[in-house]
TrEMBL record:
Name this polypeptide is given: Cuticular protein
InterPro entries noted in UniProt: CHIT_BIND_RR_consensus, Insect_cuticle, Insect_Cuticle_Struc_Prot
Superkingdom of origin organism: Eukaryota
Signal sequence residues: 1-16
Annotated source species: Chironomus riparius
Taxonomic classification: Eukaryota, Metazoa, Ecdysozoa, Arthropoda, Hexapoda
UniProtKB keywords: Cuticle, Signal
Gene Ontology MF terms: structural constituent of cuticle
Any GO CC annotation of this UniProt entry: extracellular space
Claim: Signal is one of the keywords in the record: yes
One Pfam entry name: Chitin_bind_4
Length: 140
């Protein structure tokens, strides 16, 4: 009986297993000869660099007082900025930059502005004094 069961299982597994066909032989992809491709590179146009700007800040609350102006024409840049230092002096910087001379700056500093104190005359209003009535409280 065991032999019958073993034989039946072998036949069943042989029927259930897939049959593999041989794989086709590998063939390399065909190589085609093409004419060489010439890529034409067109450079993008570059705008001529030219601008000018300026700004200024004058904030009496914080004491932030400064300004700047600059202009560029091609590769030449010229400008100036100034600011009020904490001691009241004004620093002004004039600068230029180009391909031939590089960056150059000239710094000027003015002496602090000293305001002459204005004498203040205080006038006091007359003060009226009133005496409060004296209250004596006796606790018994």
């Amino acid at each position: 009986m065991k032999l019958f069961i073993v034989a039946a299982l072998c036949i069943a597994s042989a029927i259930a297993s897939p049959v593999y066909a041989p794989l086709p032989a590998y063939h390399a992809a065909p190589v085609y000869a093409h004419a060489p491709v010439h890529k034409v590179v067109v450079p993008e146009p570059v705008a001529y660099p030219k601008y000018s700007f300026n700004y200024g800040i004058k904030d009496p609350h914080t004491g932030d007082i400064k300004s700047q102006a600059e202009e560029r024409d091609g590769d030449v840049v010229k400008g100036q900025y100034s600011l009020v230092e904490p001691d009241g002096s004004v620093r002004t910087v004039d600068y230029t930059a180009d391909d031939h001379n590089g960056f150059n700056a000239v710094v000027h500093k003015t002496a602090p502005v000293v305001a002459h104190p204005v004498p203040v005359v205080k006038q006091y209003a007359p003060v009226a004094y009133a005496h409060a009535p004296l209250v004596h409280a006796h606790h018994y």
